[in-house]
Amino acid sequence: MWFFKKKKDPKHDALIETIKEEQIDMQNIFSNISNRTKIEVLYKELCKLCHPDNFEKDLEKQRLAKELFDRVQSNKTDYNRLLELKAIINEQLIKGDRI
Amino acid sequence: MGLIDKVVNFFVKDSAERRKFVNDFNNKAKTYFQSLTVDTLLEAEMCYGNPDESYRHPYSAPRIVSGIVIRATAGAEIPVDDIILIGKIVLSDQALVRRMFVLHWDTFIIEDARTGKFVDWRIKDFVNFGGFLQGRR
Questions:
Q1: What is the pTM (predicted TM-score) of this model?
Q2: In this predicted structure, what is the pLDDT of residue B97?
Q3: Using CB atoms, which residue from B17, B37, B133 is nearest to A31?
Q4: Which of A65, A69, B5, B34 is least crowded, fewest Cβ atoms below 10 Å from its Cβ?
C-alpha cells in the first residue's frame, strides 16, 4: 500500500541516473572480442616477462615488476592496454637488463 | 526502494531503457560485423534468468526477464574456452556491467548459436560501485 512506501534517497537515485548516462565504449569491447586469441597469447607472454620472481636479485626492479604484473593482471582482457604495458615492460624492465 | 516504486520503475520506465540497450547493442554488433571489426556476429536478447537464488540482487527483474543472453555466431563451432573469454571481455567493461545491473538483469549468458552451448555469470559479482564512486570524486 502507498503509505508503506519507503522514502526515496535522492543521492541513490542520482547515482542510478548517472550510471544510465555513462558512455560505453562498444568499439573497444568488439575489438577485444575480435582480438581474443591474440589477447591470450600476449597476456601469457607479459606474465612471463614481468613476473616478480625473475628479478629476485634486484629489489628495485622486483618492486617495479610486481607493480607491472598487477597492472597486466587487471587489464588481462584489454588488448590495447596490454600492448601499452608491453612497451612499458620492454622500456623499464627488459631494456635495462640488456644494457 | 518501495515495492510500488520498483513495479512502476520496471514496467513503465526501465523496460523501455532495457529494450533500447538491447537494440543499441545489436545495431553496433551488426555494424562492427559488417565492417569486419569483429569476426563473430553477436546478438543480445532478454531471456530467463538463472533460477539459482544466488544470482538475484536488489535490482533484479522478475525471473522470466532477468537474464540477458548474447548469442555468438561464427563460421565454426566456438570452443567453450572462447565462450568464456568473450564473456570475460564483456564483463571487464565496468560501465557496461553497471548499466546491466541497474537495468535489472542478474544473469549474463554467452551462447554459441551453432551448438547451443552456453556459459552464464552472476552480474552482481562483476559490479564495482566502489571504484565508480572514487572515479566520480
A1: 0.82
A2: 93
A3: B37
A4: B34
